[in-house]
Fold this sequence. Notes:
The complex is a heterodimer of chains A (234) and B (339).
Chain A: H1 3-22, H2 35-58, H3 76-85, H4 92-97, E1 117-118, H5 121-130, E2 141-149, E3 155-161, E4 170-178, E5 189-202, E6 209-220
Parallel strand pairs in A: 1-2, 4-6
Antiparallel strand pairs in A: 2-3, 2-5, 3-4, 5-6
Helix pairs in contact in A: 1-2, 1-3
Chain B: H1 29-42, H2 44-50, H3 54-86, H4 90-96, H5 101-111, H6 119-131, H7 136-149, H8 151-160, H9 165-189, H10 208-240, H11 244-250, H12 253-267, H13 274-280, H14 286-295, H15 301-311, H16 313-338
Helix pairs in contact in B: 3-6, 3-10, 5-7, 5-9, 6-7, 6-15, 7-9, 8-9, 8-13, 9-14, 9-16, 10-15, 12-14, 13-14, 14-16, 15-16
Amino acid sequence: MNRHAQAAVLFLLGAALLHAGSTDLYLRYVKAGLRPLLLAAGIVLVAAALATLWYERRRPPETHPHPEPRIAWLLLLPLFALVLVAPPALGSYSASRTGTALQQPYGYPVLPAGDPLRIALADYAGRAVYDGGRSLAGRRIAITGFVALDRSGTPYLVRMALNCCAADAQPVKIALSGRIPPVLQPDAWLEVTGRYTPERTRDPVNGGPVPYFEVTSARPVPVPRDPYDETWNG
Amino acid sequence: MATTTRTPGRTTPGPPPGPAPGRTSGPSSPLVLTFVLLLVAVGQGPIRRGLAAPVMQSWMTVFVAVVVQALPFLVLGVLLSAVIAVWVPASFFARALPGRPALAVPVAGVAGAVLPGCECASVPVAGALVRRGVTPAAALAFLLSAPAINPVVLTATAVAFPRRPEMVAGRLVAGLVVACAMGWLWQRLGRAEWLRPPRHAGHGGRTKGEAFWGSVRHDVTHAGGFLVVGAAAAATLKAVAPQSWLRAAAGNPALGVLALAALAVLLSICSEADAFVAASLTEFSATAKLAFLVVGPMVDLKLFALQAGTFGRAFAVRFAPVTLVLAVVVSVAVGAVLL
């Protein structure tokens, strides 16, 4: 790949990073806090492309002393994947193959008033398992997540928790009881409303604790702006 | 070609004169690039349908995520490396580092603590240090310690293990010990010919600006290509291997350490995030988790690809396995004392 082609690839890659960082696309792959770095890297790549063209313009044509790296062609793969395919955030396929990553919370801040109480899935799971559901009992609760079915067809509501990028994303799962919708499509996003139940089970993959949630109603919702749960980023 | 003063009119027998304008081996790369872009743009419908299976979607998400996450840090490392190559004179390092390599190694290892990035940033910087005349043993100690013990990584570890400050201490101690030991080992046993001689010592710039941007362009396209290889390997593992395999190894302490060390190599998670993954592997012993944290920033698929690209394959196939063995041994020793 000669320098002109390298400049073109750098430009496209930088533009793709700027595109992903200036829309919500990047939230499918990395944590929200990485956005300034993505934009800065995009600007540097575009600048490197323009600088290469600028210096090539003044360079006499015969001074190409060594072959340029052929491995640079591989940079086209993430470019195509990001721009043409833009794969969705990790969903039920990963969730059903990975054990729940529920961790004991640092503390249990007082929950706000409101009915129903809207609470993050991992927050519900943490309070239900490690606090005996004390702050949850007696409240009407609404939780958003996507549906995943395990091998026996048991439905879970899942949110992927992410620390840096999708490579380290891990699911937090709650099991559903009560008035579950008759047909559940994996990866469908739902907001379920219902109440705390002390019932628990274990994740078949890693034996981790999975609390139940007693559903009274469920409605489909669009994919949230940030599909991942980033509360553990501190 | 010693005959530079040839007069233009005379015919010359023997080898063809001078560098041919434009290499004649194959079509020019801008042309190929244009065709590839056109083909993919035209065929995007079938390509998308072919990639619709859940396993492929999951593979691509992780692949794109690793590349997108690593690129800013790679760019940061490349910029630093270009600054070192162009503006920091070799004499600076001669003064900053002790003259004796045996002393320069620990100093460089501790200096790794100031590079606030992950392993993608440290590889190009270490490459620039070697090109700038820093003794390879010291540059390698820096390469290993920087992603393992910098403040960002240690803070993330403290957050991930809120009630276990000894995990942070263990990571710091084991990381430094392995980095220095590898530096000293290289000084005793390493051979210069395993390190690929810097093919691009000067980037042929007439001005400092041209040299700087030439270095950035070369390093991003080169190291970026290797990053893609590493990301593809990590995504394949994440999409294909089920986590239930791990559970079988958790029961046995020795097997647990080896399993998590292998997992660290294969997953290639950024060192700023690996502590959270380690914390979630609750079935494993603390020593096994420490091994995961020590091995991850020093040896993994993505890093191996980057090292092979920067220092040459002959270097990477010797350096990475020895580092892996040493990291596991040191983790077990530190784990026995601290955890």
